[in-house]
């Protein structure tokens, strides 16, 4: 079922501002889906679409992600490979991250918040980027040619440490979340959270496990974001908007995961 793992080197595909008109319209006009966020105030300058989606911001984000080591996994030690798409989108004037709520009938991680993604399949041609794009199309109806993939972050281990997940960051254009074509067997709902909310310190928490390590938790959307999805969100935002996203985790993070997580890496 699983093809050969993708190259560990990120393929940096930086979107030109000239591509914006096509990307802004590609993923509109779908049927089904969840609710879009309501903006209470305009985004601050550091979170405007001009700042976050500029070529400089994209290059800086990918460069920062490439410097990170694998998190909670040794990719060479596990055979199972998976990929997720971390979809940046525009809802109104807000730059958002697009999430899914996994269907209640699923066998694993049902009812949890996730990014679109799944296990690599033979039909993906050995490319985990292709895996992420295929899953985004199957789960949300996002057309692959409407996604501008910037690059990928570090490998992240699942809770069971039995698979390595590669997150790909991509801009999917302007999205009407309520009109997305959801796969009912996999996705209960889709929702977008503005970066402004994700960066709000009043909406950031962390969960302490057995007094030994902590994981980020985001409470600024329709659903609580935690676990693997919160780890990826935290990592991407640190790379994407470092001047605005200033959330920190306690140093206890190190105590149970010295082989992967480091305080300096995650909180620098």
From TrEMBL:
CDD domains, per the entry: NUDIX_CoAse_Nudt7
Cofactor: Mn(2+); Mg(2+)
InterPro entries: CoAse, NUDIX_hydrolase-like_dom_sf, NUDIX_hydrolase_dom
Keyword hit for Hydrolase: yes
Region entry Disordered, spans: 31-51
Source organism superkingdom: Eukaryota
Keywords carried by this UniProt record: Hydrolase, Magnesium, Manganese, Metal-binding
Record-annotated Nudix hydrolase domain positions: 79-219
MF annotations from Gene Ontology: coenzyme A diphosphatase activity; metal ion binding
The keyword Manganese appears for this protein: yes
PANTHER family: MITOCHONDRIAL COENZYME A DIPHOSPHATASE NUDT8 (PTHR12992:SF11), NUDIX HYDROLASE (PTHR12992)
Protein name (record): Nudix hydrolase domain-containing protein
């Amino acid at each position: 079922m699983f093809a050969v793992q993708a190259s560990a080197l990120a393929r940096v595909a930086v979107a030109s501002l000239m591509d914006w008109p096509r990307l802004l319209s590609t993923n509109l006009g779908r049927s089904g889906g969840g609710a879009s966020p309501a903006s209470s105030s305009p985004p601050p300058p550091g979170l405007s679409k001009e700042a976050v989606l500029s070529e400089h911001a994209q290059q800086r984000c990918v460069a920062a992600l490439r410097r990170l080591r694998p998190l909670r996994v040794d990719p060479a030690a596990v055979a199972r490979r998976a990929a997720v798409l971390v979809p940046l989108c525009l809802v109104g004037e807000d730059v958002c991250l697009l999430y899914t709520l996994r269907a209640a009938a699923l066998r694993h991680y049902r009812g949890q918040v996730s990014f679109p993604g799944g296990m690599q399949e033979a039909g993906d041609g050995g490319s985990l980027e292709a895996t992420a794009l295929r899953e985004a199309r199957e789960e949300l109806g996002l057309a692959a040619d409407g996604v501008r993939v910037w690059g990928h972050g570090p490998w992240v281990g699942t809770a069971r440490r039995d698979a390595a997940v590669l997150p790909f960051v991509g801009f999917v254009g302007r999205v009407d979340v309520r009109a997305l074509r959801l796969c009912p067997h996999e996705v209960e709902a889709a929702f977008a959270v503005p970066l402004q909310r994700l960066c709000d310190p009043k909406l950031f928490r962390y969960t302490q496990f057995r007094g030994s390590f902590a994981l980020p938790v985001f409470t600024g959307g329709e659903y609580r974001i935690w676990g693997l999805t919160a780890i990826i969100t935290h990592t991407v935002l640190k790379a994407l908007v470092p001047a605005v996203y200033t959330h920190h985790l306690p140093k206890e993070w190190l105590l149970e995961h010295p082989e992967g997580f480091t305080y300096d890496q995650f909180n620098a």
